């Protein structure tokens, strides 16, 4: 299984890889794309069964390390040796796994609305079982409330991404979240790291999630974005984009791919 990847921006620029959250596609990062493609070559990927990526075959379960290895396969095929990675939620977990798996290749890291551990594993296994049994409809019906603050009016395009997701792919990614816990390995992340948290993020609030990442990853910076829920880059694109660009300007002006 190979993940779908979309490339934008100048081919001779340093590479930034953007990872989506569970239930979303490459389109999650559309608000940041104009600013990032001015100075970086941007590669966006879809998770298994999401967007244009095929679902895992044979009811296969996945780990976050599996997803990270698939991202490395994309980058190898593209001839990319060093890169920055920015990811939202599950995409952030993939980025952290990449920084641990291939520290010589990850030049810079942005962890947005994510965590070293996404709560009790049973919750994710129950969601995976629900989706395998009933499809993605039940989780799509409640997605806007999980992802955004109550006053946000632009949720529908992102909920539509979830409604179009293959149930097997979504469930396999839930399995990956259930098994993910790098709390005791955060000190081993060597890449310069920016942690972005939505002040009103319900699934991964700053307290207990973003603050743990920032405290335990050496020299990491924490930015808390007011008025933002779980998909902070969508709900508050201005401050999130500015923070990412500042971080990349400081840490990733290196050699192109």
Automatic annotation (TrEMBL):
Signal peptide: none annotated. SUPFAM superfamilies: alpha/beta-Hydrolases (SSF53474). InterPro entries: AB_hydrolase_1, AB_hydrolase_fold, AB_hydrolase_sf, PcaD/CatD. One of its GO terms (molecular function) is 3-oxoadipate enol-lactonase activity. One of its GO terms (biological process) is beta-ketoadipate pathway. Residues 14-129, 172-237 form the AB hydrolase-1 domain. This is AB hydrolase-1 domain-containing protein. It comes from Actinomadura rubrobrunea.
């Amino acid at each position: 299984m190979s993940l779908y990847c979309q490339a934008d921006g100048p081919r001779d620029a340093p590479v930034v890889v953007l990872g989506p959250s569970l239930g979303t596609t490459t389109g999650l990062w559309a608000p940041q794309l104009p600013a990032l493609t001015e100075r970086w070559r941007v590669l966006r990927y879809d998770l298994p069964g999401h967007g244009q990526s095929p679902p895992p075959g044979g009811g296969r379960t996945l780990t976050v390390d599996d997803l990270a290895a698939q991202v490395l396969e994309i980058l190898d095929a593209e001839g990319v040796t060093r890169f920055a990675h920015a990811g939202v939620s599950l995409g952030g977990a993939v980025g952290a796994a990449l920084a641990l798996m291939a520290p010589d290749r990850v030049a810079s890291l942005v962890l947005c609305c994510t965590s070293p551990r996404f709560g009790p594993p049973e919750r994710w296994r129950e969601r995976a079982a629900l989706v395998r049994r009933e499809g993605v409809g039940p989780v799509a019906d409640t997605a806007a409330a999980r992802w955004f603050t109550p006053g946000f009016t632009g949720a529908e395009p992102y909920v539509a991404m979830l409604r179009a997701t293959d149930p097997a792919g979504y469930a396999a990614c839930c399995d990956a979240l259930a098994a993910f816990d790098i709390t005791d390995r955060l000190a081993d992340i060597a890449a310069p790291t920016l942690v972005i948290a939505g002040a009103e993020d319900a699934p991964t609030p700053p307290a207990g999630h973003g603050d743990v990442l920032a405290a335990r990853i050496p020299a990491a910076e924490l930015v808390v974005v007011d008025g933002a829920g779980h998909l902070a880059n969508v709900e508050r694109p201005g401050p999130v984009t500015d923070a990412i660009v500042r971080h990349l300007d400081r840490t990733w002006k290196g050699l192109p791919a």
